[in-house]
Every structure is written in structure tokens, then in C-alpha cells.
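for the writeup, i need someone to sanity check this before i put it in the appendix. the sequnce is what the collaborator sent (i think, or maybe the updated version? ugh). structure was predicted straight from it, no edits. if anything looks off just tell me and ill rerun, i have time this weekend
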Amino acid sequence: MKKICLIGASGFVGTRLTDICKNNFDITNLDKQQSLFFQELTILGDVRNPEDIEKAMKCKNMVVLLAAEHRDDVSPVSLYYDVNVQGTKNVLAAMDKACVKNIIFTSSVAVYGLNKENPNEEHLADPFNHYGKSKWQAEEVLREWYNHNPQEKSLTIIRPTVIFGERNRGNVYNLLKQIASGKFLMVGKGTNYKSMAYVGNIAAFIKHHLQNTKPGYQVFNYIDKPDLNMNELVSQVEKSLNKHIPSTHFPYWLGMLGGYGFDILSKLTCKKFSVSSVRVKKFCATTQFDATKAHNCGFKAPYTLSQGLHITLHYEFIEKQKDGITFESE
């Protein structure tokens, strides 16, 4: 049985991954937060502390690196690079000490930047924020590590789009909640497409590569297809919740003006708000990515995008969060 070190698996994606892998692999989770579901598999530690990683790496033969600073409002900005870049360097150093040759790394489509035309894995990197920049730098560190004696190593980089699912309180949940409330304000015409990935599918995709590890370097975008535009997403919410949802459209310039206003207010009050210029820009951007490679590698997604949305909507807005447990997005 493969001995897997999951790093940063106490959160949203990692919990789902642990749940579907715990019977197939010998799993240890290293995380600075205790797992709410898998405490017996979790060791407390931080990727910024090499000694913590070395302890978790003993007797392992594969790593899945999920840990990351990812929110839009991380402060100080240096945390993105301390965790996402230096943390990756620390993991690789611990792997070398323990002679571990295989790693799966969750990066992000944020490395491509905004408003690109359906980029595939060969597209030039053009990250627009510190999260995307730090993820790209971490990828470069990983490629440098792999290129030293590549014949002995396995490096798989997965670039998911925004991930949603039950118990998550990330950007997609906030968007679905706003739409479901019936007080949704649509910025722009609603024809911009938003790529998404259901947590059940991204966890299954990682598991697929754990089960099919082979020497070499590979990178995959992961998106559940077909993409929906904002108007279609509203229709999906209406269908799943069986309710009419009116929406008011505001021009882009007015939305950005409001976003900048909240940016100023946030700086003046030292408070964080759900609206910002970055979030308005991301909301109105077209985020479509080519996932042909991921869906042609022998992997079959267990859920369609519509099924994932339906499950999430019913859990969050009909079943009323029976377990009361939530996670930040990853």
C-alpha cells in the first residue's frame, strides 16, 4: 500500500480527498489546523517549518501538496510567498532527505491571468495577483527540482479553476448564496463564462493520479465542462431550488466604482468587506480554460457540473447545513 503524505489536507479539498482515499492508501495529513473529520490521521505542523515536514515525511513514498495562502485579502502580502513558494522549497528539501521521488502539486489557473482565450497548459503565464504569481513561482521551483535527475522522479501539477462544494464558504458559495437570496445584483451583461470545478471531481482527479503514478512530468488544467455563463448559472440555481430569481443588471464601470469605494473604506476602517475592486474584476472576467488533457487522460469525472451544483445547492440552502461544519476554499 502506498504511503501518502498529504500536506494541507485539513481543509475543504483535502478533507474530501482524505475521505475517498483513506481505504486505498496509508495516509498522513500535515496541517497547521487540526482536521475536523480525520484527527487520527493528522499531524500538526507548518510548511514554513522544515522540521515539521521532515517528521511527517518519514517512511512515505508520495506527497500531495495542497497547502497554500489563497484568499484575495491575505496580509501581509509576503505570506503568499512564505507559504506558497518557500513552503514548496521546504517540502522538496524534506522529500530529498527522505528519498521521496513523487509529488502531486495543486497549483491554479490563476497563473494564466484574467480574460485569456481558453488557455491550455502550454499558454504563457501572466498572473495578475500575488496568489497567481506565488503559485507560478512554486511551479518553477518544482520544475527545477524535477529537472535534477528527472528519470527518477514523478511530478504532476494540477491547475484547478475555482472549486466549490458542500460546506465550502469560498467565492462560489458567496455567489450562489447571493443568487439564491433573490437579491442578486448582476454586474455586466451576464454573458461572461465562469469555469468551475466540483470538489468531488477534483478530489477524484487527484486520487486517479495517486493510483496511476508513473515517472515523468505532467501538468493538467482541471475544469468541469461545459462552462456556464452567469445568466446560465442563475438559471441552474432557479432549477435546483425551484424558485424564480429576479436579477438587476449594473454596468461594469459602476460595479468597479463601488469596488474601489469598498477598497478605500477597508483601508480606512481596517475591516474586510465581501465587495472589493479585485472581486468585481474577477466576477466580470471570462474564465474559460481548456481541460481537454485532463478529460482525455483516462479519468472519468464522477459528477457532471450540473450535478455538483445541484448537490451543493440542496445541501446549503435546503438541508440547512445539518453538520454545521464549514471550510475555507483551497
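The longest helix spans residues 78-98. The chain has a mean pLDDT of 92.
thx in advance!!
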